[in-house]
């Protein structure tokens, strides 16, 4: 390395060390202030008998299960033969929330549900894997136009 690059490298290492030290100092200060805040909350609660501004915990809605999500997807796809993945995800979320369930874990449950053998993804979107919902002009057992030869 030439001298100018070495000098720049040294300056950057010094700056890194300075910033690391400052970061550690600020983190320690934050921990100290958070401890003081916790003590003040406890004192307020003890004196007034009222809960502090920090909520103790709220009751949560139940999470949707994989079976719940599969059922909603099947219902949606029975009324519309194929939907884009994004549109289906949005509609499933709306139905789940409307049913009083939490969104917590919904993205994973949706992925798991779509991966089941009940559904298939094509260039037209997601559809039921069975012939439960055929287009009006397509007799049962014949290709629907989304199958390739």
In short:
This protein is mainly alpha-helical. The chain has helices at residues 3-48, 66-79, 85-98, 106-114; strands at 119-122, 125-128.
How does this model look, in words?
- This protein is mainly alpha-helical and 149 residues long.
- The protein folds into 2 domains: 58 residues; 63 residues.
- The chain contains 4 helices and 2 strands.
- The protein has a two-stranded antiparallel sheet.
- A hairpin with a 2-residue loop joins strand 1 and strand 2.
- The longest helix has 46 residues.
Summarize the main sheet: 2 strands, antiparallel
| SS content category | mainly alpha
Number of domains: 2
Q: Output mean pLDDT.
A: 81
Low-pLDDT residue intervals, each spanning 5 or more residues:
132-149
Q: Give the count of helical stretches.
A: 4
Reading side by side through the largest sheet, how are the strands ordered? 1-2
Order of helices and strands: HHHHEE
The radius of gyration computed from the alpha-carbon positions, rounded to a whole number of angstroms, is: 29 Å
Distance between the amino and carboxyl termini:
63 Å
What is the 3D shape?
flat
Helical content (DSSP H or I, runs of 4+): 55-70%
The fraction of residues assigned to DSSP E strands is 5-15%
User: How many β-strand runs?
Assistant: 2
């Amino acid at each position: 390395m030439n001298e100018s690059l070495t000098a720049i490298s040294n300056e950057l290492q010094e700056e890194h060390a300075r910033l690391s030290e400052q970061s550690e100092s600020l983190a320690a200060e934050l921990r100290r202030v958070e401890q003081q805040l916790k003590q003040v909350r406890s004192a307020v609660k003890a004196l007034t008998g009222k809960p502090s501004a920090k909520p103790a915990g709220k009751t949560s809605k139940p999470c949707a299960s994989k079976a719940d999500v599969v059922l909603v997807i099947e219902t949606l796809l029975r009324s519309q033969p194929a939907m884009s993945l994004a549109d289906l995800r949005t509609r499933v979320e709306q139905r789940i929330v409307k049913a009083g369930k939490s969104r917590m874990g919904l993205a994973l449950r949706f992925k798991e549900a779509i991966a089941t053998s009940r559904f298939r993804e094509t260039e037209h979107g997601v559809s039921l894997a069975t012939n439960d919902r055929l287009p009006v002009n397509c007799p049962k057992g014949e290709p629907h136009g989304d199958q390739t030869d």
